[in-house]
UniProtKB/TrEMBL annotation:
It comes from Paracoccus stylophorae. The keyword Membrane does not apply. Its EC number is 3.1.-.-. Keywords: Exonuclease, Hydrolase, Ligase, Nuclease. This is Ligase-associated DNA damage response exonuclease. The lineage of its organism: Bacteria, Pseudomonadati, Pseudomonadota, Alphaproteobacteria, Rhodobacterales. Signal peptide: none annotated. It comes from the Bacteria.
Length: 330
């Protein structure tokens, strides 16, 4: 059986005929395997969903307990139709996983979803999984993207807080994964006092704490006189009246896209923090070299740049050109 007979793109997303399931489908399907709970990969309305326990629990928080007809926790290799599937840590956010698909006969395919090779204190590290075909994201799949050490970005944040002690620092961060990672990085950098959070972050921060991730003292950012110099909110909050309660704030944003200074200027970001939960160019190319798959399939981003790199390395590659995936919607 050829790889494209095991898994191929459709209007609904990646489909596996021998297992009769989709991976991260963008519309409701009968059976979905979900890599992680970001809204551009995990949607409600499927007949059945298989994912890690944490991903299923986060989906229930975000979409309600009835987000799918049935749920199944991914726990070890599982037979589905004429395939065996298994879930392996992706290092992206809490509960994130790569999905390995092994047919009865034919190549083994690993769908990485979104993944990161840099240490992330709020989730399990990426686990390299040997495979014949590796499906990789290319969110930052251009040589210009070389993300700095997050600890160094936190040094910049602390320096700004020292330089402007009377100005609240409002940092935009996606509500799931990035916000909690930013809080832990701030704690590791020495911020011991209360950190204020927008109400949209509360339930997911509570869930991370329930999973044993120490976020320290968090207080609601509900008043103009919040007793915390550091405030974390979803990016959408900065376009709402909520931000007007803060006097002369330093506006920041934590994202890999802050490496593009034009994006920071367009958003009015005074303190861009280049902190990404995706692989950058050195990480994605190093991962492909490490796995040494027979084929690379590329999706979610700058497909053409990574396609050209694979060609120069003599690695057969193809773009999947899936639609409907982007940064976590806010």
């Amino acid at each position: 059986m050829r790889a494209d007979q095991i898994l191929h793109p459709t209007d609904a997303g990646l489909y596996c005929p021998p297992g009769d399931f989709h991976i991260d489908p963008i519309r409701p399907v009968a059976r979905a395997l979900i890599t992680h709970a970001h809204g551009d990969h995990a949607r409600a309305g499927h007949g059945a969903v298989m994912a890690t326990r944490q991903t299923l629990e986060i989906m229930a928080i975000r979409y309600g307990e009835d987000f799918a007809g049935q749920r199944q926790v991914a726990d070890g290799p599982t037979r589905i139709g004429d395939t065996t599937v298994s879930f392996h840590p992706a290092g992206h956010i809490l509960g994130s996983a790569q999905i390995a698909v092994q047919p009865r006969s034919g190549p083994k395919i690993v769908v990485s979803g979104d993944y990161c090779r840099r240490a992330n204190p709020v989730c399990a590290p990426f686990q390299p999984v040997p495979c014949d075909v590796f499906v990789t994201e290319a969110t930052f799949g251009l040589p210009v993207f070389r993300h700095p050490d997050p600890a160094g970005e936190m040094v910049r944040l602390l320096a700004s807080m020292v330089e402007f002690p009377d100005r609240p620092h409002l940092i935009g961060a996606y509500v799931l994964g990035k916000a909690q990672r930013l809080i832990v990085l701030a704690r590791e950098a020495g911020i011991a006092g209360p950190i204020a959070i927008h109400g949209a972050l509360q339930r997911l921060c509570d869930y991370h704490a329930e999973q044993g991730i120490d976020l320290g003292e968090l207080i609601p950012a509900t008043a103009a006189d919040v007793p915390a110099q550091l405030v974390i909110a979803p990016p959408s909050a900065f376009a709402s009246p909520w931000v007007q309660r803060f006097r002369d704030p330093v506006i920041g944003f934590a994202s890999g896209w802050m490496a593009v200074r034009a994006r920071a200027r367009q958003r009015g970001v005074e303190l861009p923090l280049v902190i990404s939960d995706h692989v950058d160019w050195p990480q994605v190319t190093a991962t492909i070299r490490e796995l040494a798959p027979e084929q690379v399939w590329i999706t979610h981003g700058a497909e053409d740049g990574l396609l050209r790199w694979c060609e120069l390395q003599g690695i057969p590659a193809r773009p999947l050109r899936l639609v409907g995936y982007e940064d976590e919607p806010e």
